[in-house]
Automatic annotation (TrEMBL):
Pfam families listed in its UniProt record: ANTAR, PAS_3
Residue ranges occupied by any ANTAR domain in the UniProt entry: 133-194
Domain of life where this protein originates: Bacteria
Family annotation (SMART domains): ANTAR
Ranges in a coiled coil: none
InterPro entries to which the protein is assigned, alphabetical: ANTAR, CheY-like_superfamily, PAS-like_dom_sf, PAS_fold_3, WH-like_DNA-bd_sf
Organism lineage: Bacteria, Bacillati, Actinomycetota, Actinomycetes, Mycobacteriales
GO molecular function, one term: RNA binding
Descriptive protein name: PAS domain-containing protein
Organism: Nocardia fluminea
């Protein structure tokens, strides 16, 4: 194994160890079907709202958890879904115990076998409690082999921060989540994010839509771009 291969294999662990990202994210899936006007959510999303597994979500239930300061944002998000649009949102919810959760929601259209849009599906990412600052201790001197990777990741983090209104550590943790779930290297995901930037220069709405798509389809895009792995 070459030194380059070693860096590639250990890149995520090295960057995470230096940055110090803290506890894993809580992530859950959801769907909304237009025909039946029904919501579905995973047990993780139910737990974010304070409910046991198997609880059936409704529009009214979701709205009941809106944070007073994010009322308009949450209502706009749900209206967008019910009107047939994909969306992304960074807002707060209040669970059944009165605890506030800061969540990032990303989605894209759900298609049937013929390519027709039949709903919206995506993820809730609980980013509650992440710090505003993180460590960069001696990266240039102790990990010179991943300096380039760090620069790419920093650019991707900046794009996510702009698109979703989250801080630097939250953006890194979102990239890490997709890397762990899809088994695609963190740097590869960052490169896919950066590749979208020239296409949507100056348009934050299009940027959010493009990054939603990248995050939700990165596993498929990676296989198409690099079929030999």
């Amino acid at each position: 194994m070459t030194h380059r291969d070693e860096v590639s294999h250990d890149e995520l662990a090295l960057v995470e160890r230096v940055v110090g990202v803290g506890d894993p994210l809580t992530v859950g899936r959801f769907r909304y079907r237009f025909g039946s006007r029904q919501w579905e959510w995973s047990d993780e999303v139910a737990a974010m709202h304070g409910y046991p597994p198997g609880t059936q979500p409704t529009t009214e239930l979701l709205l009941s958890h809106k944070h007073p300061r994010d009322r308009d944002r949450l209502e706009a998000m749900i209206t967008s879904v019910e009107d047939g649009g994909a969306f992304s949102s960074h807002h707060r919810i209040v669970d059944t115990h009165g605890q506030v959760h800061e969540v990032l929601v990303v989605s894209e259209p759900m298609l049937d076998a013929d390519g027709a849009v039949i709903g919206t599906e995506g993820y809730y990412v609980d980013v509650t409690g992440t710090a505003d600052e993180f460590r960069r201790e001696a990266l240039d001197s102790t990990l010179p082999a991943v300096v380039d990777a760090r620069m790419v990741i920093e650019q991707a983090k900046g794009a996510l921060m702009l698109a979703y209104g989250i801080n630097a550590e939250q953006a890194f943790r979102v990239l890490r989540w997709r890397s762990q779930e899809t088994n695609v290297k963190l740097r590869t995901i960052a490169e896919l994010v950066i590749a979208e930037l020239p296409k949507v220069a100056g348009d934050e709405v299009k940027l959010r839509a493009r990054l939603d798509h990248v995050l939700l389809t990165v596993h498929r895009r990676h296989v198409e771009d690099d079929p030999v792995g």
